[in-house]
Design goal:
This protein has 273 residues and is mainly alpha-helical. The protein is 74% helix and 0% strand. It has 16 helices and no strands. Helix 9 runs antiparallel to helix 10, helix 13 packs antiparallel against helix 14 and helix 13 packs parallel to helix 16. The longest helix has 21 residues. It is elongated. The N terminus is likely disordered.
């Protein structure tokens, strides 16, 4: 409400040609016009609801909608970075900040590439300081989003290729550092298959299926590989059944074996026998 009121007052002055210092026309506190009242409201709100970075972040898109909020935004960013240095959400927000504050469509291709490089460097710093699955997911998510956006807005195969390689690199780094989730494993395998790296995809799927034995999609990828022998596929099928069975009681083993064999994995297995 404070931001909206200031915005309306400033616009009124502009339309009427009023001088904010002319007391005979209108008297408005300089502090008010500078949104210091809004700053006080922000500080009071975040003090009352302390330790919630998502709550702090909600003030940023709102403040960007109004005039004279540059100083307020600086204070919000300073608080977020100072209070939440070990939060992946903070690093993700900082890395994405330039993309939210500029109109990318107005930038030259070189400027966009510089922005991409700067963002990539920030995420690289983030996963170095916070080597966690959550932080890697944030970087992977941005790389994937940017790759998809490039497919829509540019005809440059080299730029898409660079972003794809960056995505593959961070996925492999997540694997190496044991900071990869099941969804990212599946993304990695899918990307490798899409670019024809079948052998590497099979290797990644093998590692993923042992780490996430309950993910039938990963086992199915291994089973459908034309590079695997029939003996290997039979062995993998037995391993999949054993892995699933180990998650339940022995009395339900026949039932779970039946579920595996009747599902997509079983269909793949039978078609490759």
């Amino acid at each position: 409400m404070e931001l909206l009121h200031v915005d309306q007052m400033v616009k009124r002055q502009t339309v009427l040609g009023l001088d904010t210092t002319a007391s005979d026309e209108i008297t408005i506190s300089d502090d008010f016009i500078a949104n210091k009242t809004a700053m006080a409201v922000y500080k009071a709100a975040t003090s009352a609801i302390a330790g919630d970075i998502q709550f702090d972040l909600t003030f940023l898109p709102v403040s960007r909608m109004f005039v004279n909020t540059e100083e307020l935004q600086k204070q919000i960013w300073a608080r977020i970075q100072g209070d939440f240095p070990d939060e992946p959400i903070m690093w993700d927000a900082v890395a994405r900040r330039p993309w939210n504050e500029v109109d990318v469509s107005l930038l030259t291709e070189d400027q966009v590439m510089q922005l991409e490089n700067a963002t990539h460097m920030l995420y690289t710093e983030a996963i170095s300081k916070l080597p966690s699955a959550d932080m890697y997911e944030k970087m992977i998510g941005w790389c994937l989003e940017r790759l998809q956006q490039l497919g829509e807005v540019t005809q440059s195969a080299s730029r898409r290729s660079l972003m794809l390689q960056r995505l593959l690199d961070v996925l492999q780094l997540a694997v190496d550092n044991k900071c990869i989730t099941m969804s990212s494993y599946k993304l990695y395998v899918t990307l490798l298959l899409d670019i024809g790296k079948t052998s590497q995809a099979l290797h990644v799927a093998e590692a993923a299926s042992w780490q996430h034995p309950d993910c039938m999609e990963l086992w199915q990828i291994r089973m459908s590989s034309p590079m695997a022998t029939s003996e290997e596929k039979v062995k993998w099928m037995e391993s999949a059944i054993e892995k699933v069975s180990n998650e339940v009681t022995q009395s339900s083993l026949p039932c779970n074996k039946s579920i595996v064999l009747s599902g997509p994995l079983g269909t793949t297995w039978r078609s490759n026998k």
